[in-house]
Amino acid sequence: SGDSAPLKEAMAVLQHHDAVSGTARQNVVNDYARQLAAGWGPCEVLVSNALAQLSNNKQNFSFCRELNISICPVSQMSEHFLVTVYNPLGRKVDHMVRLPVSEGLFFVKDPNDKSISSNVVMVPSAYSKMYQWELLFPASVPALGFSTYSVNQVSSHNHQARNQLTRPRKPK
Amino acid sequence: SRVIVIENKYIRATFDSGTGLLMKIENMEQNLSLPVSQGFFWYNASAGDEESSQASGAYIFRPSVRKPMAVSHWAQINLVKTTLVQEVYQNFSAWCSQVIRLYEGQRHLELEWTVGPIPVKDDWGKEVISRFDTPMKTKGQFFTDSNGREILKRRDDYRPTWTLNQTEPVAGNYYPVNTRIYITDGHMQLTVLTDRSQGGSSLKDGSLELMVHRRLLVDDERGVMEPLLETNTGDKVRGRHLVLLSSVSDAAARHRLLAEQEVLAPQLVLALGGSSPYNSQ
Fold first, then answer.
1. What ipTM did this prediction achieve?
2. Mean pLDDT of successive 10-residue segments in chain B (281 residues)?
3. Does B270 touch chain A if contact means CB atoms closer than 8 Å?
4. Which of A26, A54, B133, B227 is least enclosed, having the fewest CB within 10 Å?
5. Would the CA dihedral through B155, B156, B161, B163 be positive or negative?
6. A126 and B260: CB-CB below 8 Å?
7. Which residues in B lie closer than 8 A to residue A60 (C-beta atoms)?
8. Closest Cβ opposite residue B270 in set A22, A26, A62
């Protein structure tokens, strides 16, 4: 079962001005980070249970804590995965989802199983140690609700088949 | 061409292709255009001087000179344009880079900066800022928020509740920024939203700066008993500034809604395909 108390505890401790502005001794700052990270785990279980209950679908959900540095094993290693976007605001929001992926073509479908536009963007090597590919697609999420999008990577032979189809018949 | 442009139907950002730096922001919806030069600078942290032994440290910001040094006067850039996003990657130095993004349908520029590890081999502590310079006539005033709610007017070398004898021309004009800082000339407004608490100021007309990272070499004798000198993964920081150019009448609605969306941002949860039906019974 999940539990949000450890994270609440950590957030309460981190109201201290040293935590807000990072002006404590190194070992204290490290301990603040440790408390926060320890609070995440039980919360992720809580969110997974809530999503399973609300979507009537039990999945092995995973949370990518290092998205801001383009690390997310599930989206980088899988050819098919689901992305659930939760909106804590009391109004609908449009949000550009950005996920690190392996090179290739992707199909994204919205909660109504309709294909939506998506891009794969190459991140220049100067900005990140090795070439990175990021999948972008626009998500629309209801107030205090969530939307689930499905992502499928077009496998390479399909990709060639697709190319054949789109290649012009007459030689240029 | 001399310039590089990224745009969507609302906003256009123009870059000088010679320096790779941002040089103008336009709000096409409201027909506003503002020359904006944005770059990274660093203050040389004081270790104490003849005026005062006070050093810059965890609790104290005290630059040794008023004028910060530029990290670089130019950036090596990469331009990426797709249907959903247009972005310029700027590489200022081995320890300072940024991506300026404009997503389809969005009315703000997203500046994702990555700073660190700040080099200190020259034995100088450094306090790094992102600074926006414009020709706006702001009469020595700027505005910062207080915990994301009340907006407070700030004035050069002035305190509303007592007669200030300004002894620190830079640090004495720095204020806490929890969610936003802005400057206005009464006609248009340049607002910068932050994704965390930072120090910020406007030290000359039309200018706006936010401190993004610090690396100091001496303690400030205020109780921590060690310099602010991260040696672990905390020595590199990545964050975002959201930049809005709008009319004064329209600005509050824009930055208040955007700040809410920044603080209560959508959360992503992934799952591999294949699930089993589940109900509480």
1. 0.91
2. 93 97 97 98 96 94 97 96 96 96 97 97 97 97 94 97 96 97 97 96 98 96 92 91 97 96 95 76 67
3. yes
4. A54
5. negative
6. no
7. 271-272
8. A62
